[in-house]
Specification:
This is Putative restriction endonuclease domain-containing protein. The protein has a single domain, classed as tt1808, chain A, CATH 3.90.1570. The longest helix is centred in the first third of the chain and has 20 residues. Strand 8, helix 3 and strand 9 form a beta-alpha-beta unit. Helices cover about 25% and strands about 25% of the residues. It contains four helices and eleven strands. Strands 4-6-8-9-10-11 form a six-stranded mixed beta sheet, with helices on both faces. Strands 1-3-2 form a three-stranded antiparallel beta sheet, with helices on one face.
Length: about 200
């Protein structure tokens, strides 16, 4: 991840200049180049497929958009772009920007967000945990397939870790999973998934 601007951007400036460019997101006015790699995109793609299959099998009125930004209402110059986002189609009528832009402002619309860790692991383990909890997003997955996160987040020795964050009140309870372990999602309890399946 690089911080490529010295001048800060507003949310509206970001949308005009980078809204359609999936490489970028905005955090507190700073442009973040997420620098996705092939392996990063492969992990996100495999997860998307497994989540979509479970949504379809469970006959849920949810979908996974190709491109979507989250604008936290309390953050004036932030536009988050999760690697995978699951939306509740019934809630879209409450989204003020959706008809013009793929932008979500209401946490109730979001069933799940997934961040696949790359060099921006600090944002995913700290800042986004706070933002997503403030929005009231019930479940957040952090997929650290290379074991890049800090020891406080993934333990020692550092190793690939899949963390399921479940909202309890206004904070996430975090459950880490390692290679060889069955991952449990309260949102998708019938989903059969191991970290081994996606890396």
């Amino acid at each position: 991840m690089t911080y490529s601007l010295t001048k800060t951007l507003t949310f509206d400036e970001f949308i005009v200049q980078y809204g359609d460019d999936t490489r970028y997101e905005l955090i507190d006015g700073e442009l973040r180049d997420m620098e996705p790699t092939g392996p990063h995109e492969a992990v996100a793609g495999k997860l998307t497929g497994r989540i979509w299959a479970e949504i379809f099998r469970s006959n849920l009125n949810w979908f996974i958009p190709k491109n979507c930004l989250i604008k936290p209402p309390a953050a004036e110059a932030t536009a988050l772009r999760p690697d995978v986002i699951v939306l509740d189609e019934d809630q879209l009528k409450m989204e003020p920007l959706w008809q013009r832009e793929p932008i979500i402002t209401n946490g109730r619309t979001i069933k799940l967000v997934v961040e696949v860790i790359s060099t921006n692991w600090q944002d995913d383990y700290a800042r986004k945990v706070e933002e997503y909890a403030l929005l009231g997003i019930g479940e957040y997955w952090i997929v650290d397939y290379r074991g890049l996160g800090g020891i406080v987040f993934i333990g020692k020795p550092k190793q690939p870790t899949f963390t399921v964050c479940q909202l309890n009140g206004d904070e996430y309870e975090q459950q880490p999973y390692r290679l060889g372990q069955n991952i449990f999602s309260p949102l998708l309890p019938s989903l059969s998934l191991r970290l081994d399946n996606i890396i």
